[in-house]
Structures are given as structure tokens and as C-alpha cells.
Amino acid sequence: MTISEKQASRAWPGTSIPWLRTINEANGACFADAVCLWLISLMPVAAVAAEHHVDQAKENRVMFVSESPLVDIDVEGGQIDGYAYWEGDGFPPENGQLNGSELYFEVPLNSLDGGNSMYNRHLKENYLETEKFPYASYKAKITRVEPAPDSSYAIHAEGVFNIHGRDKPLRVVTTVTTVENGLKVTCEFTIPLADFDIEVPSLMFMSLEEKVAVRLEFHTKPAPKQ
What we know:
elongated, 44% strand, 12 strands, 8-stranded antiparallel beta barrel, alpha+beta, Lipocalin, single chain
């Protein structure tokens, strides 16, 4: 090998010798392939996840209930929207796969009906102030899943409940049952009105208690595949 060839072999990438250039290009292609495979191996694998949306076509119910000394008052509506998301395919979610879970539900408060137009107006305008605060909502993470009677599951969640423009932490336990084409969800929890700066309303000598039970019963269906 001549001195020029030896120099060229040390300057491998820039060689002008045809056979050395051919080897260089081949090795370069192999190196590029190896780099691509290495980068692909570092890319995160998309996790399988399940997502459900509230099924608006089904009969859903939300109730705000307070018992007064004189009369039981139920404020009820059928409008509720929201979603639930968890890692894994299908239901129920595994307890070891709850870190990325999320659920969110909201109720338009103007849809509530107490069966009395005067009471409805009084409640919405003077106490809930629905023009300023049109929704009640709950956003949370699933923390635990337990079997429950009748082939259902108790879903424990921790999050934030919002009504009247105020956020408060809230733990909720929902009962979830598998039904045709989706899930049926029921839950109940109590909110102190003072925690949300809601005055205790009264109408025609009938007073609501300072705590109100919120009862939800709704259906969900799998979200459309993207």
C-alpha cells in the first residue's frame, strides 16, 4: 500500500479511493440502521387504555336532595356529561394501573327541576346563581377498585368537587355495573352548603338543611376509537 493509500485509510470518511469508499458507505449504512433501531427501542410503547363517555341516549338522573322538618324537597335533572379513563383494556381497571386514571363529570344546574317554578327560580337565581356558575363538576383520580355485590364493583375516587365557583376536595365511592354496551354508574355523597358559600335557602316557611345529598345514576359507553 502506498503512503497516500495509508493516509487515505486513516482518513476513512473522506477517502477518495473507490474500494475504501464502498466499504465506508456500507459501514455507514449499517451504522445508520443500528442508530435507528436503537432510537426506536427508546421510544415509549403506547399503553392500551380504556375510555368511556356518558351515554346521552340513556336515561340518566342527578338529584340534589335535602330533608326539611316539613317537607322533602328533591331537585332533579337528567342532564349529565363526562368521561372516565384508565389504563388497560376493558373493565374493571386493575389496581396496579390506576396512576394515569382520570374521571370528570358535570351537571348543568339550570337543568334541575324541583317541580315548582317559583322554587326553581328562587333556588337558581338567589342561591346557586346559575348565570354566574352554570355547572357543578367533579374531577378525580381512581384510587382503588373492589368487587361488590351483584357482579358490580366499588370504584373509589379522590378529587375536587366544584359548585358555586368553589372547589373542595371530595372522596367518592361509586358502584359500577357492566351492562349491555357499557357501564351503569351510581353514587351518592353529601356536600355542606356553607363550604361552597351557598346560603341555606328557604321558601314559604320551608327550609332546606345545611347539607345536601347529591345522587347520580347514569350510563357510559366506550369512546369512539380514534
